[in-house]
Amino acid sequence: MTLSIKQGSSLYVRTSFTILIALFIFMVFASAVVFQYLMQPIAKKAAGDLAALMVLSSQTWVELSPDARPRFETELQNYHDILITSEDTKHSPLSHDRPFIHFLKQALEERLEQPVKLYDDTTKDLVWVEIEISRHLIHIGTLAHPVGANPPRVIFLLLLGAAVLIFFTSSFLVRRLTQPLEKLSRAVIQMGRGTQVAPLEETGATELILLTRSFNQMNSRVQQLLDNRNTLLAGISHDLRTPISRIHLALELMDGKDDVELIDSVRHDLFEIDQLIGQTLELVISNEKALDNLEMVDLNELISSEVEKYQDESKRIEWQPASSAETDINTDFNIRISHTAFQRIFQNLLENAIRYGDGLPVKISLTHERGHIKVCIADQGPGIPRQYQSEIFQPFFRLEKSRNSNTGGSGLGLAIVSQLCEIYGWSIELVESELGGGELKEGGLKLNAKKGSTFCLTLGHKSD
Q1: What is the reported pTM?
Q2: Domains in the chain, start-ordered, CATH in brackets?
Q3: Where are the alpha helices (DSSP H) in 316-445?
Q4: Cys-Cys crosslink for 107: which of 50, 51, 396, 437, Cβ 3.0 to 4.6 Å?
């Protein structure tokens, strides 16, 4: 079944667009604040000062004699950029109402206590005001832009520059954050399609490093599970083929005859098939058993009962229940664990030690070590070569490559042990092989120089 993914904009586009909208809202807000609390007060103050100067100049001009007025007009124009005359300027009414001109008109009307008319002189970029003082109709003009600075443009450019700088800086940072996520997304899609993915580089912020590291671990685990599945299927098909072939051959040889030996052979082959299928199912569904009820178990008693099942003349097992007096007066070996899981692990380890122990005694020890309980099982067989010690917990791995049931098991025993330990938080390790074996001494297991293998199972403390 193919899953369809709804296409949408990338995380980078969405984040950049969000930043752009936020910057636009900020610019609008900043412009309103600057206009309300900076530009408008300054413009009103400048318009009020200019209105006062224009009114005072008009009153002075009226009081001067006709001969003195030209010189006064020249000084106003040279020093204050103000023109004054009693002649009709014949200009059209002002068509625009910029904030400063609006404030200037308000200030003039407040000082003169009468309405004023403004006219536009576009040829000289002037604004003319018609004022009636002492029955004189005076036309006084001032620059349409009396201040050389342009605060609105300056503020707009500053805001625009800040917005551009913030946007590109944010885009750069967002890009740095989204690139690892994009790589991770592509890797997840590839892994979902069944394609093998190379480990991703763990770089960037701490959170991204942890995320990438978790993905790499998950990817490695998935690849390992896939490899185990392939090995599992290959091993099952191989191990089932031999007994099935023997059953077919036996049926052909019987040909209606009542041969007890052939019937027993068929039964043995069917038992072997059933055992292999049971072990395989146990390996597959053991995760579901992790929710089994835990119970307090006395490991001394449990191990002793298990040893009795295997203890006979051909299977010599050296086991002495551990005494709390020999270790610590406050030490006991009661622990809350899964009885079934421990029993399965112990049986697999013990059966391996007996099978590969060359008929020599198998040694078992039970000790406390650093607040944990450790169970060690040592055989005195040929041991495991170092180059294979990292593979022995893989499904269907066997040192004896012929996979003959007479010379070894199915190769699932240690894989089941490893998986159960992982489920319950225990640890299993091959602490000694080739040089190891072991000799049970007072107080624990002491390794000797004989060949052999020693597997140790470490459980949680009794208070866990």
Answers
A1: 0.47
A2: 11-152 (3.30.450.300), 217-290 (1.10.287.130), 292-459 (3.30.565.10)
A3: 324-327, 339-355, 413-424
A4: 51
